[in-house]
Amino acid sequence: MSRVSLLSDLLSSIGARSWFAGEERPQSVDVPELAALCHRLVSSRGEATGVRMAADIIHGVRALDDKGIKRFFHMLAEEFSPDPVELAEAATAYASHPDAEALVRLQQIAEPPRQELFRRLNLAPGGTAELVKLRERLLPLCRKDPARLAPVDKDLRHLFQSWFNRGFLMLRPIDWNTPASILEKIIQYEAVHAIGNWDELRQRLAPADRRCFAFFHPSIPDDPLIFVEVALTDEIPASIASVLDPDRAIIAAEDAQTAVFYSISNCHKGLASVSFGSFLIKQVAEDLKEHFPSLKTFVTLSPVPGFSAWIEALPKDVLERLEPAEKRAIDIVSETDWQADPARVEEARPGILSLAARYFLRAKRGDGQPLDPVARFHLGNGAVLNRIMHMGDPSRRGLAQAHGLMVNYLYDLPKVEQRHEAYAAEGEIAASRPVTGLLPGRGGHTLKDVA
Amino acid sequence: MSRVSLLSDLLSSIGARSWFAGEERPQSVDVPELAALCHRLVSSRGEATGVRMAADIIHGVRALDDKGIKRFFHMLAEEFSPDPVELAEAATAYASHPDAEALVRLQQIAEPPRQELFRRLNLAPGGTAELVKLRERLLPLCRKDPARLAPVDKDLRHLFQSWFNRGFLMLRPIDWNTPASILEKIIQYEAVHAIGNWDELRQRLAPADRRCFAFFHPSIPDDPLIFVEVALTDEIPASIASVLDPDRAIIAAEDAQTAVFYSISNCHKGLASVSFGSFLIKQVAEDLKEHFPSLKTFVTLSPVPGFSAWIEALPKDVLERLEPAEKRAIDIVSETDWQADPARVEEARPGILSLAARYFLRAKRGDGQPLDPVARFHLGNGAVLNRIMHMGDPSRRGLAQAHGLMVNYLYDLPKVEQRHEAYAAEGEIAASRPVTGLLPGRGGHTLKDVA
Amino acid sequence: MSRVSLLSDLLSSIGARSWFAGEERPQSVDVPELAALCHRLVSSRGEATGVRMAADIIHGVRALDDKGIKRFFHMLAEEFSPDPVELAEAATAYASHPDAEALVRLQQIAEPPRQELFRRLNLAPGGTAELVKLRERLLPLCRKDPARLAPVDKDLRHLFQSWFNRGFLMLRPIDWNTPASILEKIIQYEAVHAIGNWDELRQRLAPADRRCFAFFHPSIPDDPLIFVEVALTDEIPASIASVLDPDRAIIAAEDAQTAVFYSISNCHKGLASVSFGSFLIKQVAEDLKEHFPSLKTFVTLSPVPGFSAWIEALPKDVLERLEPAEKRAIDIVSETDWQADPARVEEARPGILSLAARYFLRAKRGDGQPLDPVARFHLGNGAVLNRIMHMGDPSRRGLAQAHGLMVNYLYDLPKVEQRHEAYAAEGEIAASRPVTGLLPGRGGHTLKDVA
Amino acid sequence: MSRVSLLSDLLSSIGARSWFAGEERPQSVDVPELAALCHRLVSSRGEATGVRMAADIIHGVRALDDKGIKRFFHMLAEEFSPDPVELAEAATAYASHPDAEALVRLQQIAEPPRQELFRRLNLAPGGTAELVKLRERLLPLCRKDPARLAPVDKDLRHLFQSWFNRGFLMLRPIDWNTPASILEKIIQYEAVHAIGNWDELRQRLAPADRRCFAFFHPSIPDDPLIFVEVALTDEIPASIASVLDPDRAIIAAEDAQTAVFYSISNCHKGLASVSFGSFLIKQVAEDLKEHFPSLKTFVTLSPVPGFSAWIEALPKDVLERLEPAEKRAIDIVSETDWQADPARVEEARPGILSLAARYFLRAKRGDGQPLDPVARFHLGNGAVLNRIMHMGDPSRRGLAQAHGLMVNYLYDLPKVEQRHEAYAAEGEIAASRPVTGLLPGRGGHTLKDVA
Question: Tell me, what's the pLDDT at D419?
Fold first, then answer.
């Protein structure tokens, strides 16, 4: 019987089991029918009926074309929002007599029925994954018409933040023993340094100095949510090419001093802004440290996606006040094929580094946070901007977005908490002395001096 | 590396890993300190800090004694409810201008900050299980002081209904190959027919004609939520003793005609009214049918917990209008040791059965539902009251609560949905002809005739 | 199974654990040193020492170059054979007094000490796999110098027949959820219809109408011993191209009538003549039948590796007595690119089929068995030669070895035993009527008529 | 490992699958029929037929009563031994011309056909376990009639030594998460300190300072071969009572200094003299050291099964020459309830210890090995007799066999190999100074001095 159990487990956890499988499912349903089903599902008191209806709705929604899905979301916005008249009444009632009963009623009416609808749709086999895909279809529409669709998105996101709570996620290594069905998704999802084929994938996973880890949700066990690729090295590498070099000397994991997080990819657009990346990096760092006590340094090798655009957008007056080296660098990188000429590359170095220091340490968004999104992520996690590497990524993409720049963010585990707090509370950007020393005219000064 | 992965999985899924394990945890914290920590946790933007604080709070709460936990819940009620002044303002604002912005603000303020607090407490290792235990401590206090504590319970229940959504649960067989650490919980949780020791447990799990299934939540993988024990038999058994008889002829599962659900136990008081029992029975029935096509009949063997109390409470005028056989039965069961005298047992039979038919088919609560809680559960699932068995359970408990009565509820899978709807919508009690035929003076009539 | 045990299992079964890992292993050892170690290992009474020495020997042998390994095998032949003088004495003693004591002594001396040596080498981590590789290096040397090395091979084979006993093998499905580390071996080992890359592999494993199964040995859990690829189809396919066509209509496994075993590959040369292929086919057929009761027909789609060579070697007098159609066919297939001309292909058909019938039904080796090795395998398993397909495999290889011919062998499960016996005992070749009807001049007659 | 493969693994490894399950098996077969089947099985060339016949034979043999099984073994002895006439011819032929051909023939005829029979019986589902049970029934008969049955046993043992080669065994922890079906076997098999019930079992497995490990064979995955129970402690304990005390202070495994192997049990009589105990202890010691680097000392807490009997059997003249303390001790332990009187216990101490030193260090069997079987086992593994504890086991059994004596054998991992060799080669008994110091009149001298 234990055989049956394993199987049953898999079936139920994979969500592949059909409910009352013998009966037929509607092949194609239009939005009014779906709306009717949704209303029935929300008002039904019957649990089993719910599973069946949820499956039918999900099946029908999946079959909708672009036009249909838009109508479906509009329907959700219109028919599954709180009733404004009832809500106004409840609000008035509470405002005049703010007692417990009025509060409960107000809360009940204020919660959009969509939330209960989404919870019940999750009853369907594979429901969680389907709801994530649903949001993936919603988001672009939402960006075009936020007034109408943002409330729908808000409810889905609210639910996902509860369901994809870190407490529910499972960390799993991805390696050459991982099922091919999951590995093909790694190829597909890799967002930073593309994996061209299975041989390249093997290069990322199989060598003794490579690791990869992913978060999974128990209800979507065959599809990762986010993954990070790690290189175990002697020293902090100066470029992505040296990390990915298939001819490098491969060291034993037990001897490595440094763990380099060189690629982090989110897998599902439908989980946008439901963040678990910082948990992943920190837990992987902790786990690696436990298994390989020789590891001393945990750094990223990160792109600088906003650098070129920031230079491009520098106002004229600022441009004029730049240091000569900086001006020269800007001139050089605007030439064709400058990166192919070692002399020019060297000539641009001081200016690029100086500009980079400005970009990271001084350039701020309206809310006072750094311009660079990757910097915001890692600094927000409590990492330190550790090193800026000229020509760290001379790929077409690296040149286009950052004139070849790459950086390391250092995760100094014992101080991560405190730095995270300092950044969150006071916006303090943690940077190493070599980095702050790059700021023009302030060599060797600490960040506080230059801010 | 696959080794590490398995381990890491287990660790992370079991939730047993410590976060930044090297550092010390506070040994004992008082409620004001916990309150401060809770406020910091809710307002913190930092994810990693959150894990740490959540673990500290959970650790501190677990250490609270009865007085402390009461104070802690009061604190949650007072400090983590919506701010009435702000909410009244938002309500007024919405009432006067019910636009999208006012709605969002109203919703935000109406949602108790407790919900976010509970979501963040779930970040802690083992957080989900701890929150369930938290509610177990809350419920008795809540019953004594609902005005103050019901809102706290409402938020926990709301969260649990989302997290313990059927879509997230895993069905697993429990058998003699199950880890002892789980089996000892089955012994502990069995609520219907007690399991005295491991040999009795083996009798329930190991024989070829026995099955047991449980729902688990992926974040609490070593502790079942609810389980059902099943006997595979030729015919519908007439008593629990015949089901549990260790000397019965054991049949091969492949030859069984009937699956008898003879015990269903919820495992966690903290999950009260977060119901998944009906899903369990239906899914187990489906699974069994798939594996053993010879199974034709799915019935429960159920207690009748309210029967004795109902007779006890019959008003005098009703008592007088009972049939003579019914009166005689009431007299007999009030005698000492009547059950030991076969002649009396037989003499009581017609009256008991007639009374039972009244109890199930006519006696109603204020809300129109049947008096018997077990009947409400199974009829609400779409089952049929199939058979009433005099002396089905002559145990001390069976005599005390039901004068020895047991019943079968029949799960007729193809009709379960429709019966569930009929019951939910119209309160229609589905009963077999033999049962309705027991109603005094109406032998052979349908239920509608006698209602 | 408990979590911990699974992990431990992996650790111990992968055989990757080092023994007294801290100490160093000899880097390179010459054959005399290895010989000395082997003698010590065989004579040692200590088990733990044995593990260590076995690991050292295996390590040293693996490092030997072609010359070294030859010397090593010669050393095994010379130094680990029975002592001829002692054996002659024991033989004489037994011949004169054949009592129990003399028998035991004779047996002890007759068993080559190599067998005990090999058993002790298996103590080393990964020892079983290493011994299989050892025989892979032995076999080509043995073919060149059987007088000297056949006894060494005989001992290894004897051991493998005991260790790779069907009772120890595990059947496992290979599918798209199988670890990549195993799948890359499937690509590498496929011997019949080559798999070019991972996309082609996916085509063989992932579609709903494909299955693949392999035997594994528990001590070599990450490397299959033999595997079979299966297509689930409506009807018996007429060519391999139709089976592998990526644009075919894919049917649900539940609806399939026919299981086609279209490729069987042994994975390890070191296991040559340690046969488990027939077990694999029969067990897979049984398993498929159990899971998919709609399956009625189990056939292979098999190459005919000896057909072209047989025609080539026909003596002149036989050639002259062939039917005209047969002669014509032989002429056609000797033309260049005949297969590209549909008219010629059709013209050759009757003669090819007639020749094929002769080849399968009449051509015999010296020992009375069919010439074709694939035929010997399947007929020996109790299968029936069911159908001969002209142009079933028009690939370069198919044309070269069989003028495009393919055949089906039918596994009629209830009769497999009896046919196997008839074939083994009387050499009876089971063939369908359509096949026997192809024999020239005997259309419609049974095989016994034509033999 | 992929999900599907795990399942399939279980199916195939549990060995529960039936072969051609639809057909009937003979219910009861007599020995002549079994003999005929055995002959057919050995001579059959067909593999599949073999599986079927093997299953039938095993089924039939299992049903034999004591008389029947005896006849069956006699049949094996008579009908499956080498043919003495043929063998004498082959022996004569070899003796006169000892060439390769004559050798092969001699070897073939010298190997009893029983070996091939047993190998083929292993084809049956669950065959390996059945053959172990077969030998369990053989051994007592063999002891009564070795002349006739020892050769049968020799063949089974020969096969088991090959099949249960350490290279094939899996080490698994046994803990409170282990399936109950395996745990009940631990209760049943525990041979040293009986486990009374499941609560006592839990006491042995669940506390943080307890470990248990077992060897399994992959073909018998649900039944351990041998297991060892380990206590993690601060110091070497002075008695078994202090180890098993449920009220002891339980320490964290990470803090333990000492691992105490306090119980080792073989599980299957049918595997007698197929030894893997020394592998188990050493591997467990290595594993524990790896996981808990704080562990410094690995000792057993062992019984002294032969001590009382040795004293009993001391010849009169030796008795007379004993030291006065020794004589006094012998007097005391012959009194009733001496162990209940602390004064006497103390009085007996010096004499008992002195006698024990003689028993361990001087008393020898005919072959020069120590008298005590447990001593032979551990010293043979390379352990040191470390400490002798008066009243270490005051249980009824401990008093009866050893007047309460227990001892520690120390596994000093870096020296285990060398000590094992010294013991095997020169019979050198390794003992600590405190132990050798107990020898009468030689306090402080080394063992060589006193031998």
Answer: 87
Question: What integer pLDDT is reported at residue D442 of this predicted model?
Answer: 55
Query: Looking at chain B, which residue has its C-alpha nearest residue A216?
Result: B9
- List all residues of chain A from 1 to 20 with a beta carbon under 8 Å from chain D: 2-3, 6-7, 10
Between positions 245 and 264 of A, the ones with CB within 8 A of B are none
Mutate to test the interface with A, among D2, D9, D11, D291 (most CBs of A within 10 A): D2
Task: For chain C, give the number of residues.
Answer: 451
Give start-end residues of each CATH 3.40.630.150 domain in chain C: 307-450
Look up residue D359 and give its two tokens: 């028993």
pTM, to two decimals? 0.87
D180 contact B CB<8A: yes
- Name the closest residue on chain B to residue C291, using Cα atoms: B291
Q: Do the chains contact at D6 and A6, CB–CB below 8 Å?
A: yes
For A248-281, what is each residue's pLDDT tens digit? 999 999 999 999 999 999 999 999 988 788 889 9
Are the beta carbons of B123 and A166 closer than 8 angstroms? yes
Amino acid at the residue A93: A
Quote the percentage of chain D above a pLDDT of 70.
90
Cβ-Cβ contacts under 8 Å, D179 against chain A: 2
The CATH number, out of the four listed (1.10.150.120, 1.20.140.90, 1.10.3720.10, 3.40.50.1100), of the domain defined by the range C15-163: 1.20.140.90
Do residues B256 and B298 lie in contact, with contact meaning Cβ atoms separated by under 8 Å? no
Query: What sections of C25-126 are H helices per DSSP?
Result: 31-43, 47-62, 66-79, 84-96, 100-110, 113-121
CATH of domain B307-450: 3.40.630.150
Q: What is the mean pLDDT of residues D269-294?
A: 90
Contact A6 D11 (CB under 8 A): no
Residue with tokens 């009149």: D441
Euclidean distance between CA atoms D297 and D289, whole angstroms: 9
Quote the distance between the C-alpha of residue A329 and its chain's center.
33
Q: How far is A170 from chain B (nearest CA, A)?
A: 6
Q: Domain C167-300 belongs to what topology?
A: Aminopeptidase (3.40.630)
Percent of chain A at pLDDT > 70 equals: 90
Q: What residues does B171 pair with on adjacent strands?
A: B215
Nearest to B173 among A4, A91, A171 (CB): A4
Retrieve residue C141's tokens: 């040397």
Q: What is the pLDDT at residue C359? A: 96
What's the average model confidence in pLDDT over C354-381?
91
What residues of C are in contact with residue A178 (Cβ under 8 Å)?
179-180
CB spacing of A7 vs D10 below 8 angstroms: no
Superfamily name with CATH number, domain D303-450: Malonyl-CoA decarboxylase, catalytic domain (3.40.630.150)
Alpha-carbon gap: A378 to the closest alpha carbon of chain D (Å): 34
